[in-house]
Amino acid sequence: MSESKSKFFIPAIGAAAVVAGSVVAYMYLKGPSGDSSGALGSAKLVPSTALMATYITTDSEAWEKLQQFGTPEAQKLLAKSLEDFNKNTFKGSDISYEKDIKPWVGGVMFAVLPPNAAKPAQLREPSNPANPPITLQQEPKILMVVGIKDKISALNFAKRLKEQKNVKSQESDYKGEKITETIENGKPTYSAVLNNSHIVLAPEKQAVENAIDTYKGQPSFASKEGASSILSKGVDVKNTLAQIYVPDYAGMVQQLIAASPQAKQVPQQTLAQLKQVKSMAAAVGVDDAGVRMKAIANLDPQLSKFQYQTTPANIVAQFPIETFALVNGKDISRSWSTIVEQSKEYPELQQALQQMRGQLQTVNIDLDKDIFGWMNGEFAFGAIPSNQGVLASLGFGGALLFDTSDRKTAEATFTKLDTLAKTQRINITQRKIGGKDVTEWQIPQQGALLAHGWLDQDTVFLAIGGPVAESITAGKNQSLENSETFKAVTGSLQKPNGGYFYLDMDKTVSLVNRFAAQGQSIPPETRAILSSIRGVSATATSPDKSISQLEMLLALKPNTAK
């Protein structure tokens, strides 16, 4: 987006000055009042050609809920940032958010409208068939719709803004509606008040005219097929803060790519992939666990190739309680088969797979059979702290666990890998850990680089670092499932699901601090924000082939300020 458009948020009516930047921080700290059900009303003023729309609520209950989280340091940081922003935004004026803007601003919708049709550049040189005119790419247009919950306060603010020394404005008429052009610091903004209930603003006059056309009866975003249903149903999150709506996902991506000067011709195969997603809706809300985001994609079941499978996540119990990051799922072999099948439609991908197969064949390994063929059960990758052996400088290692119904093939694969390691002069040793047979790849004076073995009849592990192998096989009573942090961060995710992503923020920051001590330290502002986060988790679900859902939780620590 050009600088002129990114700066349009200081408008004639002035609402965007706050909403674009300080309103989020303000609502977090102060908790304004407003209407959270205004998305549909705002969408009725957005043209049906809009590619997407985002709605930010100013409902007091939703934002006040967020204030129960965050350390005192984070609260002070946000307060300072808000203060600095307001000083810079209203520099040289006596306007304040608390007194002049908060009383009348309702919900805010940002809409992305398609760009104008690309036009040939107007060159003064004579036309030459050998040198066709250059096509100028047009950027998407931005339209902002601000709800008015107090008409008198909004009118008073508009009058005060016009009285400011650095603001110049003039009015024009379009189909019986007044459009105000405001020029501040040389940058124009256009706005109009429609039905005394909403303000529409844009850096281009045409976008405001399009909104007026919609208000006068032209098709709106709210009436567009695909948009009306996702606007009315929304996404199931508590205390909604923001929502996003994309009624035609493939069409939006195509138009945004076409409008980009750096865009290349999009292959037909890529466009076919995009068409798998028909529409999308997402929302961010706050509940007792923290900030939660949910996204719902409506799919074309005829085009969707990947088959969703739920996993009971039993394999999580095999990881020690100190595990600070984890990804798990099910049936890598089926996903690999789908990728192989789809590669037939993508020459570049098919060529890459053939190269991988060829390279592994030189060491007697079949990529499809020996690597992926037996990975047909649950799997998980976890990161585990360790300060011993080869992991001493890094501070952590990792472990891969796989459930399989084809132990024979898996054992044959690890035998081939051990044989390959021997050709690289790596010592292969055997020892028992926790009563289990473990094979280690030993490096002189540093210990085990890798280790692998079987935890039971169906579960094989591959560990990076001997200490990690010991923590996996020791058979301690305390597993990751017993971790209070793990339960708090992942326990509220929807079940059943296709697997987790999990991150313990405190342990992760501890490792980051270790590396920061060796070089540049973490800025205090970043440290304050990270210290307010307990962990991050995500999961995906799919009730049927026509719907895919993503859920992400930013688990926050309670506000301890007194």
Quote the average pLDDT. 81
Distance between the termini: 43 Å
Which radius of gyration do the C-alpha atoms yield?
A: 29 Å
Q: Approximately what portion of the residues adopt beta-strand conformation?
A: 25-35%
Structural class: alpha+beta
The largest sheet is: 20 strands, antiparallel
* Uncertain parts: 1-37, 118-127, 131-137
General form: elongated
- Got a strand count? 22
Number of helices: 19
Helix content: 25-40%
Describe the structure.
This protein is an alpha+beta fold and 562 residues long. The chain has 19 helices and 22 strands. Strand 8 (187-194) and strand 9 (198-202) form a beta hairpin. Helix 2 runs antiparallel to helix 5 (72-89) and helix 14 packs across helix 15. The longest helix is centred in the first third of the chain and has 18 residues, at 72-89. 37% of the residues are buried. Mean pLDDT is 81; it is low at 1-37, 118-127 and 131-137.
Helix-strand blueprint:
Elements: H1 3-6, H2 15-30, H3 39-43, E1 52-56, H4 60-66, H5 72-89, H6 97-101, E2 105-113, E3 119-120, E4 135-136, E5 141-148, H7 151-162, E6 167-174, E7 177-184, E8 187-194, E9 198-202, H8 205-215, H9 227-233, E10 240-246, H10 249-259, H11 268-274, E11 277-286, E12 290-299, E13 325-330, H12 332-343, H13 347-361, H14 367-373, E14 378-385, E15 396-403, H15 407-423, E16 427-433, E17 436-443, E18 447-454, E19 459-464, H16 466-473, H17 484-490, E20 500-504, H18 505-516, H19 524-530, E21 533-544, E22 547-556
Antiparallel strand pairs: 1-2, 1-10, 2-5, 3-4, 5-9, 6-7, 7-8, 8-9, 10-11, 11-12, 12-22, 13-14, 13-20, 14-15, 15-19, 16-17, 17-18, 18-19, 20-21, 21-22
